[in-house]
Write a structure and sequence with these properties.
By secondary structure, the chain is of the alpha+beta class. Helix content is 39%, strand content 24%. The protein contains eight helices and 14 strands. Helix 1 packs across helix 2 (41-47) and helix 3 crosses helix 4. The two termini are 37 Å apart. InterPro entries: cNMP-bd_dom, cNMP-bd_dom_sf, Env_Response_Regulators, HTH_CRP, RmlC-like_jellyroll, WH-like_DNA-bd_sf, WH_DNA-bd_sf.
Length: 248
């Protein structure tokens, strides 16, 4: 479980100084992939003051399961994990969310959040109130279609985690996890490396098994640590390992 709020929220108006959030949205590096990517600058100027820029440190919780869903969030930077805990306290990581992903979609149906959203790295998200989406869906019919596409993408991601990362031989699951993590990597090739406990919670394996597999992949040159929480992948070696694993 991540640490509770407070989290850093950047207001569009602070201390009497106006910050043009419309310009922030217009110049955002993920805007064309984000929910409001199709809106022009005039439309952004009408809604900017209702969008909050939130920043989290690793381990902080954006929202918790069963919280009343009042907003969705676009991930601009970093990686979050969607996790749940059983009644016995066992934690399971359901999937990850990274740059351009839209999370908290269940709030659109006035439902509570289905899982805890916890920052794995430094994270920046935009908070979009549910009522704003309701209003814009009337004026911009294409927004509803975009939301449906993003909902389907989230379902596909969840299915992929279930079929590729929670079943099959342990080594295969670990290799598939590394391939998945590469999707959330930095431009310079670095990627966030989960702890062995987190890997266990993602892959349904023990700490000892996760440690053994990571050590083996380091010896094989597939994985190279940069520091405690970052690593680099040799993608060619990873693809060879996946291919050989599939032939066994």
């Amino acid at each position: 479980m991540g640490q509770p709020l407070p989290i850093a929220v950047t207001s569009t108006q602070a201390s009497g100084t106006y910050r043009p959030q419309a310009e922030v949205c217009a110049s955002c590096s993920v805007r064309q992939f984000a929910l409001f990517g199709a809106l022009d600058e005039a439309a952004l100027a009408q809604i900017h003051y209702r969008i909050a820029d939130i920043r989290l440190e690793p381990g902080q919780t954006l929202y918790s399961a069963q919280d009343s869903g009042s907003a969705v969030f676009t991930v601009r930077r970093g990686v979050l994990r969607m996790e749940r805990s059983s009644e016995s306290g066992e934690r399971r990581i359901l999937r990850l969310a990274g740059r351009t992903d839209l999370i908290g979609l269940e709030s659109i149906l006035h439902q509570t959040y289905a899982a805890d959203a916890v920052a794995c790295t430094e994270v920046e998200v935009c908070r979009i109130p549910r009522v704003l989406i309701d209003e814009l869906s009337v004026a911009h019919p294409g927004l509803t279609r975009d939301l449906m596409k993003r909902w389907q993408r989230a379902l596909d991601d969840a299915d992929e985690w279930l079929t590729e990362l929670a079943r099959g031989p342990a080594r295969h699951r670990m290799l598939r996890l590394l391939l998945k993590l590469s999707e959330y990597g930095e431009d310079d090739g670095r990627l966030w490396l989960p702890t062995r406990q987190e890997m266990g919670a993602m892959l349904d394996m023990t700490f000892e098994t996760a440690s053994r597999l990571v050590s083996a992949l380091r010896r094989e040159g597939v994985l190279r640590s940069v520091d405690g929480r970052q690593a680099r992948l040799d993608m060619d070696a990873l693809m060879v390992a996946l291919r050989e694993d599939g032939e066994r």
